Write the structure tokens for this entry.
Amino acid sequence: MKLFRLNKTNLNEVEQIPFKLERDIQNLVEVNTESVFNLKFIQSELSVDKYRIDTYVLMRRTTPL
């Protein structure tokens, strides 16, 4: 998907720079989960029984129950 930067009334395509490793993307997402997704980062590479979770996050509650 192409991304564009708005410059007043013009759109300029943003250059794509690929990640070398999947772990690089995972690190970027984990460091920014709160600001981008409004989620609280809990743990990376979590194992539960025979399953593995790359990134474990929790939703922030915005309204009381």
